[in-house]
Amino acid sequence: QVQLVESGGGLVQAGGSLRLSCAASGGTFSTYAMGWFRQPPGKEREFVAAIRLSGNTYYADSVKGRFTISRDNAENTVYLQMNSLKPEDTAVYYCAADQEDYGGLEYIIEYDYWGQGTQVTVSS
What we know:
Helices cover about 0% and strands about 50% of the residues. The protein is an all-beta fold.
Protein backbone atom coordinates (compact mmCIF):
# COMPACT_ATOMS: atom_id res chain seq x y z
CA GLN A 1 0.00 0.00 0.00
CA VAL A 2 1.32 3.39 -1.01
CA GLN A 3 1.13 6.29 1.39
CA LEU A 4 1.35 9.87 0.17
CA VAL A 5 1.92 12.78 2.54
CA GLU A 6 1.70 16.37 1.36
CA SER A 7 3.37 19.30 3.06
CA GLY A 8 4.26 22.91 2.39
CA GLY A 9 0.84 24.50 2.36
CA GLY A 10 0.02 27.68 4.23
CA LEU A 11 -1.11 31.27 4.00
CA VAL A 12 0.55 33.56 1.45
CA GLN A 13 -0.21 36.94 -0.04
CA ALA A 14 -1.17 37.30 -3.68
CA GLY A 15 1.92 37.34 -5.85
CA GLY A 16 3.84 35.14 -3.45
CA SER A 17 5.19 31.63 -3.81
CA LEU A 18 4.91 28.26 -2.10
CA ARG A 19 6.46 24.88 -2.76
CA LEU A 20 4.40 21.81 -2.00
CA SER A 21 6.01 18.44 -1.41
CA CYS A 22 4.50 14.99 -1.54
CA ALA A 23 6.50 12.18 0.02
CA ALA A 24 5.67 8.62 -1.02
CA SER A 25 6.29 5.43 0.91
CA GLY A 26 5.27 1.80 0.72
CA GLY A 27 5.64 1.40 -3.03
CA THR A 28 7.97 1.88 -5.96
CA PHE A 29 7.75 5.62 -6.51
CA SER A 30 9.92 5.60 -9.63
CA THR A 31 7.30 3.53 -11.48
CA TYR A 32 4.35 5.86 -10.82
CA ALA A 33 3.07 8.82 -12.72
CA MET A 34 2.28 11.57 -10.23
CA GLY A 35 -0.28 14.31 -10.22
CA TRP A 36 -1.44 17.30 -8.23
CA PHE A 37 -5.11 18.21 -7.90
CA ARG A 38 -6.89 20.86 -5.87
CA GLN A 39 -10.33 21.42 -4.42
CA PRO A 40 -11.39 25.03 -3.93
CA PRO A 41 -14.00 25.77 -1.25
CA GLY A 42 -17.42 24.57 -2.38
CA LYS A 43 -16.14 23.25 -5.71
CA GLU A 44 -15.16 19.97 -7.33
CA ARG A 45 -11.65 18.59 -7.24
CA GLU A 46 -9.72 19.71 -10.32
CA PHE A 47 -6.52 18.85 -12.11
CA VAL A 48 -3.48 21.05 -11.57
CA ALA A 49 -0.38 19.29 -12.92
CA ALA A 50 1.09 15.86 -13.64
CA ILE A 51 4.40 14.26 -14.48
CA ARG A 52 5.05 10.95 -16.20
CA LEU A 53 7.92 8.53 -15.68
CA SER A 54 9.45 10.00 -18.84
CA GLY A 55 9.47 13.42 -17.23
CA ASN A 56 6.77 14.79 -19.53
CA THR A 57 4.66 17.33 -17.69
CA TYR A 58 1.11 18.56 -18.07
CA TYR A 59 -0.62 21.60 -16.61
CA ALA A 60 -4.08 23.03 -16.29
CA ASP A 61 -4.45 26.19 -18.35
CA SER A 62 -5.12 28.19 -15.18
CA VAL A 63 -1.64 27.45 -13.78
CA LYS A 64 0.51 27.26 -16.91
CA GLY A 65 3.54 29.51 -16.64
CA ARG A 66 3.11 29.91 -12.87
CA PHE A 67 3.33 26.37 -11.46
CA THR A 68 6.04 23.76 -12.03
CA ILE A 69 5.82 20.07 -11.18
CA SER A 70 8.96 18.03 -10.64
CA ARG A 71 9.99 14.74 -9.10
CA ASP A 72 12.99 13.34 -7.29
CA ASN A 73 12.94 9.57 -7.56
CA ALA A 74 15.87 9.23 -5.17
CA GLU A 75 13.84 11.04 -2.50
CA ASN A 76 10.48 9.47 -3.46
CA THR A 77 9.05 12.96 -3.62
CA VAL A 78 7.08 15.04 -6.08
CA TYR A 79 7.03 18.83 -5.84
CA LEU A 80 4.76 21.61 -6.97
CA GLN A 81 6.43 25.01 -7.16
CA MET A 82 3.74 27.68 -7.18
CA ASN A 83 4.66 31.24 -8.16
CA SER A 84 2.61 34.38 -8.74
CA LEU A 85 -0.15 32.97 -6.58
CA LYS A 86 -3.65 34.39 -6.91
CA PRO A 87 -6.60 34.30 -4.50
CA GLU A 88 -8.33 31.86 -6.86
CA ASP A 89 -5.52 29.36 -6.19
CA THR A 90 -6.91 28.95 -2.67
CA ALA A 91 -7.76 25.27 -2.23
CA VAL A 92 -6.83 22.03 -0.58
CA TYR A 93 -4.07 20.53 -2.71
CA TYR A 94 -3.77 16.77 -3.12
CA CYS A 95 -1.09 14.64 -4.67
CA ALA A 96 -1.90 11.35 -6.34
CA ALA A 97 -0.07 8.34 -7.79
CA ASP A 98 -0.94 6.42 -10.94
CA GLN A 99 0.55 2.91 -11.15
CA GLU A 100 -0.07 2.52 -14.87
CA ASP A 101 1.29 5.79 -16.35
CA TYR A 102 -0.89 5.74 -19.43
CA GLY A 103 -4.10 7.53 -20.23
CA GLY A 104 -5.05 11.04 -19.42
CA LEU A 105 -3.37 12.19 -16.26
CA GLU A 106 -5.85 15.04 -15.91
CA TYR A 107 -8.56 12.60 -14.88
CA ILE A 108 -9.15 11.74 -11.21
CA ILE A 109 -10.12 8.18 -12.14
CA GLU A 110 -6.60 7.47 -13.46
CA TYR A 111 -5.06 7.61 -10.00
CA ASP A 112 -4.74 4.76 -7.54
CA TYR A 113 -3.50 6.49 -4.40
CA TRP A 114 -4.18 9.89 -2.83
CA GLY A 115 -2.70 11.97 -0.06
CA GLN A 116 -4.70 13.64 2.67
CA GLY A 117 -4.28 17.14 1.25
CA THR A 118 -2.65 20.37 2.34
CA GLN A 119 -4.38 23.75 2.58
CA VAL A 120 -3.16 26.67 0.48
CA THR A 121 -4.72 30.05 1.19
CA VAL A 122 -3.85 33.08 -0.91
CA SER A 123 -4.93 36.45 0.51
CA SER A 124 -5.62 39.46 -1.68
